[in-house]
Amino acid sequence: MAILEDPLRLVIGDKAAKPLGRALDLHTVGDLLRHYPRRYETRGELTDLASLHDGEHVTVQAVIARVGSRPLRNRRGSIFEATVTDGRGDLVLTFFSRGRQDWREKVLIPGLHGLFSGQVSTFRGKRQLAHPEFELLGLDEDTHRAAEYAAEIIPVYPASKEITSWQIAASVRIALDVLDIEDPMPRAIRERHGLCGLADALRGIHRPIDRGDIQRSRQRLKWDEAFLLQTVLAQRRLAATAYSATPRPRVAGGLLDAYDARLPFELTVGQELAGAQISDEIALEHPMHRLLQGEVGSGKTVIAVRAMLQVVDGSGQAVLLAPTEVLAQQHFRSITGQLGPLAQAGELGGAEHATRVALLTGSLGAAARRRALLEAASGEAGIVIGTHALLEEQVQFADLGLVVIDEQHRFGVEQRDALRDKAGDGRPHLLVMTATPIPRTVAMTVFGDLEISTLTELPAGRAPIFTHVVPAAEKPHYLERVWERLREETAQGRQSYVVCPRIGGDVPEGPGDDVSEGDDRGGQDDDRLFAESARPSLAVLDLAGELSKGPLAGLRLTVLHGRLPPDEKDRVMLAFAQGAVDVLVTTTVVEVGVDVPNATAMVIMDADRFGVSQLHQLRGRVGRGRHEGLCLLVTEADPDSKSRQRLDAVAGTLDGFKLSRLDLEQRREGDVLGAAQAGRRSSLKLLTLLKDEELIGRARRDATELVAADPALAGYPALASAIRVLLDQERAEYLEKT
Hints:
The chain is α/β, with parallel strands linked by helices. It is about 40% helix and about 20% strand. The strands form 4 sheets. A 7-stranded parallel beta sheet has the order 11-12-10-13-14-9-15, sandwiched between helices. A 6-stranded parallel beta sheet has the order 16-21-20-17-19-18, sandwiched between helices. The radius of gyration is 30 Å and the shape is globular.
């Protein structure tokens, strides 16, 4: 008998196991049995051949219509062709051989049904599979095959050129026949929600008796995915309450009061509410764990600064971790500017109870680095801002009371913990921020160990942003008008961004450089969605040269990208912020955190190469002052393509929460959860974060209740074992991003 953790080679044999491991990364019985069918064929129901796309590796059910062979023209050998049909369209199966292929005519007989597997291509206008694998249905005398065929429902698996769907099915059948597992789902929860057993669910999804069997099995297996993850997150939330933290209640007459008095605007109701929640939790004896999310420009940084000052007033230190040097430097300039004399301890003109703000990044010179390290270690710097350099072992703090992480999705849980561990015996309070609005189910799943505060209103005085799609291929003169529009903005004393997906020029580009490079985050989560055009995407260095000599000649134009030396990036951003640059041609390095109120226009080239949320983030760089913002999405995508639909959706609303749902619908679940970025596959196979919102909510409630009663799961050994497997470091795909 076999359990889910058993290596496949011990169950199905080395010969069958090797291609599964090589081609599909399936190594255990559990891996194989969670490689679910992509779809199901019904005996006699033929695949719609018109739905096939070039480059896809497919398995289709079709009828052989005709066969024939002919010799090759210029060399020895022959071509055998079998045309299969769904009754409406045809697909040609092509086989090349150096010899005769008479035997194929005896096997591939017109009128027979079969499964045919291969990569789709087009030759001389005809859709074809070259050298496909195939299995004819109803001819095999094997008892198992005959039984499967008689059952009418044929599972079709995600396969590859190394291994076919029916070969996977054969291995699955062997594994199911020897499967002996203990159900990890507590009986009370199974009965409460009418769920079948795990063994029955695995058999039902791979060898269904009818369509109802498939639905029952999918429902149970979705519950497994949701419940195991929610149990882990419930354990984390409970464990967090066991840690102690130094309470930092608000101090009357301190830096926070002085900062509030300096603010040139009133806080929104949402900022007041979120600030009060955070202030109350920082005053407690156990660590705060809170996620602060909000619309682009909703004022999250002000809330973070107020929390940091409350901790400094309580004799502690606060650290702000940013994902890029550009963002860290932007935060440093912005926060020191807001604080003024409150950040000038020991300086002439500094306030009486002032603190200091230190910046620590990887590009600092030796002297500046030593000074920043000393200010952090001595406690002289109440606020320390930096990048991943903050995680280095030599970085120490006198009394770390609060960790603020900006753009949480760019950091793993290990990095979060590494920074918190610098607090010594206790745990610091934790505030993580994201400018990407998060649908409720993603928040419950990806950030399930955090309490959530949401900002939905923009600060008073913010100007609206108008967004338009510019169809450059259909109407080239529209692009000319784009550059005229930027000249008009410059003539009025305002500034503009031009964003490109790539760096270009002579800069060596790596595998992620189309849309994403260096410390710039990309949006290409699915090539089918984001690369409908074969043309290379436009590049910063190439376009900047064209613009400076052409339509934007005479304007002060400069470039910014993630591979500039750090001091050069800082110099460019400072020059732009001070108004010394009219047009900044840049990559997505400006996507978050950059705040230049005088920048009113943004042109995003090849906008179809970016994701919805990323476009929304980029757009948020304009309209941050009293002047209206303008965002122009330039694209050559076909008017009827998904890319254009995506751009029209962005142009149609400024509601980031609506756009985040659209973004989630168009991404693969694993990408949302971070598995793609981690280079590993996702553990969510069936659960969809939008469609299964109610299920995830119920799983969260059940998991919270169970963990509260039995934190170590001592009464549920099978569940505890399943969670240990989930948390294995080699397989903890999406949990690294929580």
